[in-house]
């Protein structure tokens, strides 16, 4: 697979980043991805401070390759997580869902590499100005929280590539080697994938969640929270109920009633495997995911598919 500015910047073999994933990206997945030649990431989104420390210490014990820490900026204790990350020796950070101008001063040092996740050209320019070393440009196909403008990867990536001069990783809808070839053809320096990594042996997601990803079809996901907190997840009883209510014009109060307060719906679905009433965050690429390989097997396949796709174009 092609060496790019991203492989160079991060010191990795393949231009593939494993996106931080709330509840389901711990040290084990991160180490497996880094050992396979990509950039594995500990996703701090759902972790308490001790868990962040523990996961960083353990990922360091399990790989000597580069790895990263993802910090969603919607965390109220965002600054503390940055501090813990630096103290524990994280050197590559991705920040998401927030203002890059707030993140850069906390994380930018001579020995750190900071990357910001954006859903727009405006966000990309802002991150570049703030001093970020690279950008993950995420389209509306992606699993998890999405940009409010609903811009798709195929049109967003080349516009972002044209607007900035730092490396860009494309995210959203990429789950095989053909997608990686397509992203590079659009001018990206690499990709970030989330959904594909959920269905791997090393991912700590509940087996029921992994199986739902494998069984999902091209129309298997939906967006909820357009008025509150946009999220792409698998269709199930809960998310269909939410969508119905939103279509019927339900306000925040009514939607909060449907969500209920007895469970964290994401933990319920992704960690405890309650596939009907929990939230199962996944992207449209779930329809491409047919099995649950080890991360090493997956990387071998991604490289092979990529080479075939490129050869076919020639
Ligand atoms: C289960 C799940 C949880 C996610 N949680 C986060 C998160 O905590 N922080 C973040 O920056 N992105 C999060 N994302 C987005 C991914 O990091 C990645 O950018 C996205 O999945 C790429 O699109 P794809 O799902 O089509 O591969 C999540 C995605 C999934 C599928």
TrEMBL record:
A GO molecular function assigned to this protein is:
nitronate monooxygenase activity
In Swiss-Prot or TrEMBL terms, this protein is called: Nitronate monooxygenase
UniProtKB keywords: Flavoprotein, FMN, Monooxygenase, Oxidoreductase
Report the Pfam families cross-referenced here: NMO
């Amino acid at each position: 697979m092609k060496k790019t500015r991203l492989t160079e910047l991060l010191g990795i073999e393949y231009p593939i980043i494993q996106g931080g994933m709330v509840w389901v990206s711990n040290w084990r997945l991160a180490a497996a991805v880094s050992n396979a030649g990509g950039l594995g990431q500990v996703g701090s989104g759902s972790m308490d401070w001790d868990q962040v420390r523990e996961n960083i210490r353990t990922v360091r014990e399990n790989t000597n390759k580069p790895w990263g820490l993802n910090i969603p900026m919607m965390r109220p204790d965002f600054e503390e997580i940055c501090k813990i990350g630096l103290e524990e020796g994280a050197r590559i950070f991705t920040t998401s869902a927030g203002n890059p101008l707030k993140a850069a001063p906390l994380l930018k040092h001579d020995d750190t590499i900071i990357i910001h996740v954006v859903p727009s050209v405006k966000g990309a320019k802002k991150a570049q100005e703030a001093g970020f070393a690279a950008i993950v440009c995420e389209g509306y196909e992606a699993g998890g929280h999405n940009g409010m403008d609903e811009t798709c990867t195929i049109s967003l990536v080349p516009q972002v590539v044209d607007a900035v001069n730092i490396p860009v990783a494309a995210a959203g809808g990429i789950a095989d080697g053909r997608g990686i070839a397509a992203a590079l053809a659009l001018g990206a320096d690499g990709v970030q994938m989330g959904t594909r990594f959920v269905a791997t042996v090393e991912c700590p997601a509940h087996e029921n969640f992994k199986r739902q990803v494998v069984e999902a079809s091209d129309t298997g996901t939906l967006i909820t929270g357009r008025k509150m907190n946009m999220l792409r997840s698998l269709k199930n009883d809960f998310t269909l109920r939410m969508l119905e209510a939103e279509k019927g014009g339900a306000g925040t109060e009514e939607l909060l009633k449907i969500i209920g307060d007895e469970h964290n719906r994401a933990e319920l679905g992704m960690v405890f495997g309650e596939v009907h009433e929990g939230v199962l965050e996944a992207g449209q690429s779930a329809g491409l995911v047919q099995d649950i390989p080890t991360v090493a097997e997956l990387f071998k396949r991604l490289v092979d598919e990529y080479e075939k796709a490129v050869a076919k174009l020639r």
